[in-house]
Model the fold of this input.
Amino acid sequence: MFIFYADNHMSSPKDTINTLQPEESDMENTKLDRVLEIFFRGLRGEDLSVRKLADEYEVSTKSITRSINDLKNFLADHRELVGYTDLKYSYQDRCYRLCRG
Done:
């Protein structure tokens, strides 16, 4: 696959991938920042509403749900490190809360 530019310059797919890597890296950093922020907000005792977080971070509810699942998996894998802490969903309040077990 080749990409043609207005000046008839051709580049290979490898060149295209190299130019995209910083953006992909920025996206990963943004996701990591978001996950850590959500975690620390939970530590402060905030209720974590998927809809409100999605609106605040300007991402889909699916992205927030993935971030919360990442946090839940981390907490489950590192129970001793985080003091048996878990994110629990309250159906009544429609939000997650960080709970120590």
Notes: The chain has three helices and four strands.
